[in-house]
Specification:
This protein is an alpha/beta fold and 374 residues long. The protein has ten helices and 22 strands. Strands 6, 9, 10, 11, 12, 13, 14, 15 and 16 form a nine-stranded parallel β-sheet that branches. Strands 1, 2, 3, 4, 5, 20, 21 and 22 form an eight-stranded mixed β-sheet that branches. The two termini are 17 Å apart.
Length: 374
């Protein structure tokens, strides 16, 4: 299949008017386009890689942690309709038996692409968090980092855990990081740690920061904390919730300057995303939407009520150049979890996952493995 007359966001970060080709679910070069698949005229619209959401708890009324496999399929379908072609379902702190059940669901659905966006791993946000900075995570399910617990959970997930969030100041955290990095990526977050402790975590192997600014100490001139340590660690990626609620637009612009080509836009969306006004589950907690904010029943801010495509649009409206916002939702997340060899750019040999939008970031079409799904 040949796609012509489009503005293509290329791997080098530039927009070019060019054709691209798809065969057998992969991007291919022109010489390989000999299967008579036809031609699609994009009519001057923009084609970019499919978005990759590496931190998403739920959407469309369905929750990953407390839900079943049918709910996970619904999440995948909702995401595909909203521009996400790959995702990492993210758990909240919950009873270990609940986490195991959720992880088994993800493992069963892994590799199946008939339901929507592709699962490319699991993000275990909890239970190894700081009680002081737990956010919306229930305190009764927090535990100290444990390699035995992680191994048990990862076995239930058939080795699918890609990211584990750890508060570096918790008991045994540094030793845990040194061991667990052999199996997954460690993201420092939900933490009250100081600069020195954060540096030790990054030296030990942590390579991500969970939702920058949120659930961590602020960046102060005499107490730079985890944010200061992360900016100086050039292999560390910073997640950012750009929903217009969790982070002020000035801090969004600052993040892109502090972490050049290292910002990973995430939705951090909850089950209430897309079903405003309905109470839904997030793990063992009930969440709802109040004035566009996803909150616990007591009013405490939880995750977001936005899709990743919304976050990209928000970033651009806040002054982030489109190429940087798009890269932060495609190439950078793929690099951060080591899947850029197969997705994250419109490049020959990679999965033909891409989206097409018109002016004003109006989503027109979503393709997964070369098949139009929305």
């Amino acid at each position: 299949m040949r796609y012509k007359n489009g503005i293509v966001f290329c791997e080098d970060g530039r927009f070019r008017k060019k054709d691209f080709f798809v065969r057998d679910g992969l991007f291919c070069d022109a010489a390989g386009d000999n299967d008579g698949g036809g031609v699609v005229d994009l009519g001057g619209k923009t084609a970019i890689p499919g978005l990759i959401d590496t931190h998403i708890h739920g959407c469309g009324g369905y929750d990953f942690t407390s839900g079943d496999i049918d709910g996970l399929k619904k999440i995948a379908g909702f995401l595909a309709k909203n521009g996400v072609t790959s995702f990492i379902p993210t758990s909240v702190s919950a009873p270990l038996c609940m986490l195991k059940a959720a992880y088994k669901n993800a493992a069963e659905l892994y590799g199946q692409h008939d339901y929507g966006a592709k699962i490319v791993g699991i993000n275990a946000e909890g239970p190894f968090l700081s009680d002081e900075k737990r956010g919306a995570h229930p305190p009764e399910y927090l535990i100290a980092p444990s390699l035995a617990v992680f191994s048990d959970l990862n076995n239930a997930a058939d080795g699918l855990i890609k990211i584990v969030c750890v508060a570096p100041e918790t008991d045994g955290a540094i030793d845990f990081i040194k061991s667990a990095v052999k199996s997954c990526r460690i993201s420092a977050g939900h933490t009250a740690c100081d600069y020195d402790t954060a540096k030790r975590a990054f030296v030990a192997g942590a390579t991500k920061v969970t939702h920058l600014y949120n659930a961590m100490p602020p960046f102060l001139h005499m107490e730079p904390g985890i944010i200061g340590a992360a900016t100086e660690s050039k292999n560390v990626y910073a997640e950012l919730i750009c929903d217009g609620v969790h982070v002020h637009e000035s801090a969004v612009r600052a993040a892109f300057k502090l972490f050049p080509h290292r910002v990973v836009l995430i939705s951090d969306s909850l089950s209430v995303c897309g079903v405003n006004g309905v109470e839904c589950l997030s793990g063992t907690s009930v969440v709802t939407v109040n004035d566009e904010r996803a909150v616990l029943l007591g009013g405490r801010l939880a995750g977001s009520n936005s899709t990743l495509f919304d976050c990209v649009k928000n970033a651009v409206s806040m002054g982030i150049p489109p190429k940087d916002a798009i890269e932060a939702a495609t190439k950078i997340p793929a690099l951060s979890v080591r899947i850029f060899d197969r997705t994250g750019s419109i490049s020959v040999g990679k999965a033909a996952d891409f989206i097409v939008y018109a002016s004003g970031f109006s989503l027109e079409a979503v393709y997964i493995d070369g098949k139009r799904v929305s």
